[in-house]
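ARCHIVE ENTRY
Sequence with per-residue C-alpha cells
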Amino acid sequence: MIKVINYIGMINMMRLQKCQKNLQNKIQIIINHYGSCLRLLNNYEDAITWYDKALAIDSQHVDSLCEKGDCIRLLNNYEDAITWYEKALAINSKHVDSLFGKGDCLRLLNKYQDAITWYNKALAIDSKHVDSLCEKGDCLRLLNKYQDAITWYNKALAIDSKHVDSLCEKGDCLRLLKKYDESFKALDQALSINPQHNFSLKSKGLCLEDQYKYKEALIYFDKSLKINPNDLWTINQKKICENKLKQ
C-alpha cells in the first residue's frame, strides 16, 4: 500500500513538473512575442529588454537570440549583432533568419563577398528566402556587377512581384547600365507600391539628372527631402541640379 501511495505521489510530482515546464515555456513565448511587437514598432532598446527576459528563462531560445541580434543590427551595432546571430547559429546552424542577419551585418560593414557567403548559406536551406535573394543582389550591385545583381533581384521578384527593395535596386542597376526607360519602369513600380520609398525617389531623381533633366529631377529630390530633410547626399544633388539650371 505504501509503495502504491509513493508511486502515485511520484506520478503527481512528475505531472506537476511537466505543468510547471509547460507554463514556463508559455511565459517565455509570451515574453518573446512582446519583444517582437516592440521590435516591429521600432522600439529596439525596449525590445532587447524583453528578449533578455526571455533568455533568462531559456538561454538557448534561438528566436530570442536572433531577434535580439536584429534589434542590435537595427541600432547600427553590426559587430555586436553578429555575436548574437552566432549564438543562435551555435544552437541551430540552419536557422535561416540568423544566417541572413549575419550576412546583412557583413553587408552593412561593406564586407560584400563575406556577406554573399552567408546569404548563400541561407538560400541553401530556403531557396525562396526573398530578403537573401535581394540583399545578395545588393552586394553584387555594390561590387559593380550590375547585370549579375539584376539576376538576383529578378529571382526575388519572381517570388514576390511587389518586393519594393528588389524593384528599386533593380531600377538603380538599370540606371547604372544607362537603360533609363527600363530603370524608370522598375522605379515607378516601386513607388506605386510605396510612394514614400526614399531610395526609389532618390534613384528616380538621379536617373533624370543623368539625362540632364534637372527640373524633373528636382521634383524627386524635393520629395525625398520631405521624408529626410537632413540627407546631405540629396541636398547636394539638389544643389547640383539648381546650379545646372542657372547656367
In short: The domain at 1-92 is CATH 1.25.40.10 (Serine Threonine Protein Phosphatase 5, Tetratricopeptide repeat).
